[in-house]
Amino acid sequence: MKLKLLFIVMDLLTLLAYPFVLAHGKLRQYSKSKDGNLSVAGSAR
Question: DSSP letters of 6-43?
Answer without folding.
Answer: HHHHHHHHHHHHHHHHHHHHHHHHHHHHHHHHHHHHHS
